[in-house]
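Cross-check.
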Amino acid sequence: MTIQLRQICLVAAKLEPVIDDLTTILGINRCYVDPGVGVFGLENTLMPVGRNFLEVVAPVKPDTAGGRYLERRGGDGGYMVITQADSKPAQQAVRQRALNNGVRVAHESERDGWNLCQLHPRDMIAAFLEIEWDKHEDFNGNWQPVGGGGWEDKVKQDVTVDYSGVELQSNDPLHLAELWGKVTDLPVERNGAEFTIDLNNATLRFVEATDGRGPGLGGLDILVRNREHILSEARKRDCYVNDQQVEICGTRFYLQDA
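Predicted model, tokenized:
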């Protein structure tokens, strides 16, 4: 079984200012707007990060799950870890292990050749975990949340290259890591004060919550080719933290040289 990190979803109170910050600072392009999220009272925009994707959603009406999440975490921030399994049996096995460990399915959809399953963020503690499968079984190509294909010419990697990791935080990072390990059936390793799980293309890092926001998706590790561009644009937009980190949409972006 192979699980690929394919998409990260952030949630924001207002969509457009955040998309402008992300595209300008990270040097990435918009590629898709999904009208389907309207059923959840949201609007969205997606951007390719390498052959993977960054999505931002924002509520457009009161009393939405996204809006409640903003209130619970005190503002914009990480929302979903969206992954792709290499086969439908592998995807269904993740779903079953989640149920076996007391994790509810928050939403699922099965269409012709495409199955998605979202695991409840309260049960997964730090974020939604979504596991998808589609008949193309292509980690570098077809991806249904961006309409399948047609996004390839929007890929831009001269500034930001790709993801390398996801930082998930809680008051008990070992418990959090063990739960995600049970659901994904992947081993948990210790790396200093952190616990880690390796997906096919990125590492999940489980750390102690120290920012006062409680459990959540706190940060992303990104591979970069033009650190100076990122830092310069971040300073202009009050997103600069230090030479290794910028903060956009309430999310820490840790810069790693590609």
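Residues 83 and 131 are 5 Å apart (CA to CA). The two ends are 27 Å apart (CA to CA). Passed to J.P. for a second look.
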